[in-house]
Each structure stands twice: as C-alpha cells, then as structure tokens.
Amino acid sequence: MTQRVYLDWNATAPLRPEARDAVVATFEVCGNPSSVHGEGRRAHRILQDARIVVAASLGAEPDTVVFTSGATEANVLALTPGLHRTGTPPVERLIVSAIEHSSVLSGGRFAKPRVEIAPVDRSGIVDLAQLDRLLADQPPALVSIMLANNETGAIQPIRDVAELVRARNGVLHVDAVPAFGKIDINFKGLQADLLSISAHKIGGPKGVGALLVAEDLRGLEPALTGGGQEKGRRAGTENLPGIAGFGAAAKVAATNRERFAGHSDALRRRLEAGLKQIVASTIIFSKDVPRLANTTLFTAPGLQAETAVIGFDLEGIAVSSGSACSSGKVQPSHVLEAMQVDAALARGGIRISFGWETTENDIDRALEAWRKLAGTLVKKNDETVLERF
Ligand code: PMP
C-alpha cells in the first residue's frame, strides 16, 4: 500500500521525536511542581525550563508565560473585560477581526453586545482605517487580531495595529497560533500586550498552550479559579508532561525556523505552479499579500470543498476545506465570507498546508491526485463565477 500524504499541518502537526521523548520522560516524574520537597522541586525545574525555552522562542521573559490547556483556553483567558496598562483606563469592549478563530470570535469573557467586528479587505488583511474608526469610539477597547490567518496564511500588519491601539489607550491581544514556528516573532517588538500559542501546531503534544502576558498589563482575571498556580493567573496543577513536550518542540522549532521557511517556500511555489498548470482558472486566496510559506488556500469554478476533500482522502492525501474547526459543518468559511468572496467560490476553498517532513514527492502526489479529481470536480469553460469574484 502506498503511504498516505499528510498536508493538513495547520490543523495539527505530527509530534516531534524530541517532544515525545520529553513527554515520556516526564511521565516518570512524580512531584507536584507546587510542592516544596525535593520531588516537587524537580517537577518545578522541568516546568521552569520549559517556560524559559518557550519564552525565549518569542523573545519574551519567562515570567510572562502562563501555561494553559491550549490556545482556546489562552484566548478565553486573554479576552477579559477590565484589562489595562499601568496608567490607562480599563477596557470595556472587545474588537476582533472578522477572520479570527472561533475561540476569539465568540468573545471570551465579554458579553455579546460588547463585541465588535473589524472587517478585512479582499486579500484578507485587516482594514486599518476601519479598525481605527472603531477604536475612536469610547470606552477603550481590547483588540484581538491574529498574526497570520490559519486558512489563507495572510500575515497581518500587527505593528501598525499595535500603534493604533496604543494611541487610543487600548490593549492588544494577538493569536499567534498559525504563525508560531513559521515566522520570527518577538513579543516585545510586536508591542502586543497578550499573545496566544499552541503546542500541537509546532510538533508538541495536543492539549497544551500558553498565553504571554506583558509585564505592565493589569486586570487579568483567571478564567480557571482555585489554586495559585502560574502566579495566580491559571489555577490547576500544570500538565507537566505536556509542558515538557511543548518546551522541547519550541526549542527545535526555533532552531529550524529559517530552514523550514525556505523549504516551505520552495514547496509552495511547486504546488501553486502545479495547481495553475492543471486548472488554469485556479484562484489562490491572499496570493498578493505576505503569507505563511506553508499555506495555500485555493479554489476553482464549480468546486465543492467537501467532495474534493473526500476525493483527495480516497487518493491517500489529507487536505482540508478551510479550517478543521469549521469543516464539520457544511458552510462556507467565515474567512472567505469576510473577504467578500462569492458564496459559490467560497464553498470550494481547499487548504493545503505542510510542514518540516513534507517532501517534493508529497507535493507531486497531491498534484497527481488533483489532476485526476479536477477533471470531474471543476466546471470547464465557466467563467461566470470568476467574473463575479
Ligand atoms: N487559534 C487559531 C488561529 C487556531 O488555528 C487554533 C487551532 N485550531 C486555535 C486558536 C486553538 O488552539 P487549540 O487547538 O490549542 O485550542
């Protein structure tokens, strides 16, 4: 049987061997990191080592890292009414971009009427003028914008966003999940107040993540209350094996990041040239703006994403229709909708995302499968949909 080809790395990445070793080794450690005895101190050392590595991979101080059960929890923790920097008034409303992950779009701990949506342009980049208009209203707002989008890969102008937010006394949260390990991220340089990451997207285990909290940020109420773990910011005994695996993955990801970016760039060029060669009318979303090198979201006239994903799967290729979280429901991606893509075209969005283990041969196998499928799935000579796009 031929090997399957996994091209859905933005949904989750395979566990790195270094992360697996760290997880397994930590299962043997009995102490509770909050205990004062030798066993506890040993567990605490593992926790702190992981904290140092994760922080360093983002140019941050270890104390800024709050370990969580993943980025969903990190996002909910971040989206707290009342946050403020020293000397600025507490935020009372939340502005999120229209292309955020569902854990941000759902508003965290803000009441629904207090959540406002900032639009994006047709390339999937947040509209800074509109954002500034929303920010100009009172009271001050918490703004949550992702660093790169998980469906299109489009990289957002976060430094410009940070300037606007600061000028209006707001607070900025950045969901950095898809960008982490793929582009250089410096927490201080970004001027973000809060930043979420997840271990399983960089080759760590699932069910662990972190929220970075700037030192001068005030008013962060824990979402999980109880013990004083994580400096009172997240109660509950830490998932030590998961966190040790996260640390190990973060270390390898940081060491290999530049090589990975170059490798991805070459693979994506090959992929996108191949897609265009097979179906000349292929549309690649966000192709004219800076994008993560490992992500291609494409469609073609008449394509139904759900059918295409099953077709690829039967050919042994794992791809997705938009984001994994929304692909359980048959509805067009909210990201493409926000980009004002025609509904007929948006229903056909296929995401191919790859990682450090992906080879040229994997890309060629995906293209081979697509050549077979496109013959029946793509409408020929139908330029009407394209005109409407
Ligand atoms: N934000 C983004 C942009 C994501 O892609 C994901 C994962 N689908 C999350 C948040 C949630 O991360 P986790 O799976 O760790 O809860």
Short description:
The chain is α/β, with parallel strands linked by helices and 389 residues long. 40% of the residues lie in helices and 14% in strands. The radius of gyration is 21 Å and the shape is globular.
Q: Main attributes?
A:
disordered C terminus; 2 domains; 40% helix; Aspartate Aminotransferase, domain 1; three-stranded antiparallel β-sheet; Aspartate Aminotransferase, domain 2; 389 residues; alpha/beta; binds 4'-deoxy-4'-aminopyridoxal-5'-phosphate; seven-stranded mixed β-sheet
User: What is the strand tally?
Assistant: 14
Largest sheet: 7 strands, mixed
| Helix and strand element order | EHHEHEEHEHEHEHEEEHHEEHEHHHEHH
CATH class of the largest domain equals Alpha Beta
Distance between termini?
Answer: 41 Å
Number of domains: 2
> What bound compounds does this protein have?
4'-deoxy-4'-aminopyridoxal-5'-phosphate
- Please identify, by name, the CATH architecture of the largest domain: 3-Layer(aba) Sandwich
- Overall 3D shape: globular
Low-confidence stretches: 383-389
Q: Count of helices?
A: 15
For the biggest β-sheet, the strand order reads 2-9-8-7-6-4-5
Q: C-alpha Rg, in Å?
A: 21 Å
- According to CATH, the homologous superfamily of the largest domain is Type I PLP-dependent aspartate aminotransferase-like (Major domain)
| Structural classification | alpha/beta
Q: Give the averaged pLDDT, no decimals.
A: 94
Instruction: Tell me the CATH topology of the largest domain.
Output: Aspartate Aminotransferase, domain 2
Helix content: 25-40%
Q: Indicate the proportion of strand residues.
A: 5-15%
